[in-house]
Specification:
It contains two helices and no strands. The protein has 67 residues and is an all-alpha fold. The longest helix has 27 residues, at 24-50.
């Protein structure tokens, strides 16, 4: 047995006018992005602690002596 669902013709208009609707897919994508950023920062910090970057050597400012 098939059931037919009656949807009023103004239902799509009512949904588009509601400003309080939340796009769950967009919110989920934001949350996943934030979690990935957090994980990336944690890994970056751990890597910097394990293998710190060497500071660049300064060049001497004096001219070399002539022989």
């Amino acid at each position: 047995m098939r059931w037919l669902t009656f949807i009023p013709s103004d239902a799509p208009d009512a949904m588009s006018q509601d400003d309080k609707l939340i796009d769950l897919n967009a919110e989920r994508a934001k949350r996943i992005h934030d979690l990935n950023d957090k994980r990336l920062n944690e890994v970056r910090q751990a890597f910097e602690q394990a293998m710190p970057l060497s500071k660049p050597k300064k060049k001497p400012k004096n001219k070399p002596k002539k022989r």
